[in-house]
Amino acid sequence: MIKVPKYIITFPGENLTQSVLVVDDEPMARTLLRLMLVRAGFNVSEAEDGYDALEKVKKIRPDVILLDVMMPGMDGFTVCETLRNEEDTASLPIIMLSAKSDLDSINKGLRVGATKYLTKPISPEELTRHVREVLNNAPA
Question: Could you give the number of structural domains in the chain?
């Protein structure tokens, strides 16, 4: 079992003002992603499925969403497309992170509006780099 640390390691110049919503139906995947992002200095919230994600986006207004593709009920493609069709979330950075690495899935993710489409597994350094990149390029 992985335990989330009670302390947070940040690096010079970083703070917890940037928030990431991690959306994945697998609890272990959410925990691992949370650990990676918290250690990089991000404030992290979690959603366990697409419906939960849409509700949490309204409540917490994350700076970026890390979105799994394969989830029961509402998949990540539908979540992404739904968010892109809402005025308040149309420009919200969305990074799809999935084990689906085939070209059709990647193209579909980008077509429905993902800012980036990354494949699992992913290293903490690579994940952090991509999250920072989309945050730095996000509209103000």
Answer: 1
